[in-house]
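User: Can you predict the 3D structure for this chain?
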Amino acid sequence: MSDPNLTTVTRRSFLQQALVLAGRLVGLGLLSGLYGYGWERKWIEVTRIPLTVPDLPEPFRGTRLVHFSDLHLGHYSGLEDVQRVVDVIRQEKPDLICFTGDLVDESTRLVPGAAQILRQLDAPLGKFAVLGNHDYRAGEQRVVREAWSEAGFAVLDNRHVRLEKQGGRLYLAGVDDVLLGAPDVKRAVAEIPAGETVILLAHEPDFADEAAAYPIRLQLSGHSHGGQVRIPWLGAVLTPKLSQKYVQGLYRIEGSGMQVYTTRGIGTTILPIRFCCRPEITVLTLT
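Assistant: Here is the predicted structure, written as structure tokens:
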């Protein structure tokens, strides 16, 4: 025969333990949110990678290519954040600088000031950019293009440029935003002589599956934010369309000689939080 007092105590104990556990979980959630908002989203990581590019011309071996993306100006990201990014990049003494889209989030209000700060960047082989889907959502993609021009960056809208160094040639191509623009990779690489080394800038990383049909050695992308919030051992909670396959880091495209590097980017969107997913500036040393 069961003791009713024992049953009551057991139920009361269970409820007390459940309330304590719930309180701890809520507290942990609040602490994680405060950390993600107040600390990690500002804690830039510089990722330095030696990257083998097949058939890279001898004069370009050792080239330091800085890749950054997704500033998302206006979404809890201001001009002081742009200056912080510029200061970090300048310390790396890059030979080549590439930006892969989303200068703004939903407003171009801060663009003129950002252009003046980005002008401080210098690279002997040039500074290049492509547009992202948020640059189009802002409804003023012309303003974004003009800002990049003011900052000394060439916007590669379905076109390429030839970089020359000591008799060697390297081609840098770019496509318009895949989601909201009019991307044309065929046009972007048209008239590049066979056998040349080509690097492609494309905002959305999963576009690599289409780009791999062309003689491109490396694609640089952003867009994913690395997931922005990552759960240890599980990975990204959510990634936007066309960044669900190549979420962060370096990948080799199956069945081709092409690689894609997806940076976690700088800013945030939707929620002003990063968790286990620090903002990233990548320095690729081409070998």
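Residues 150 and 279 are 25 Å apart (CA to CA). The two ends are 79 Å apart (CA to CA).
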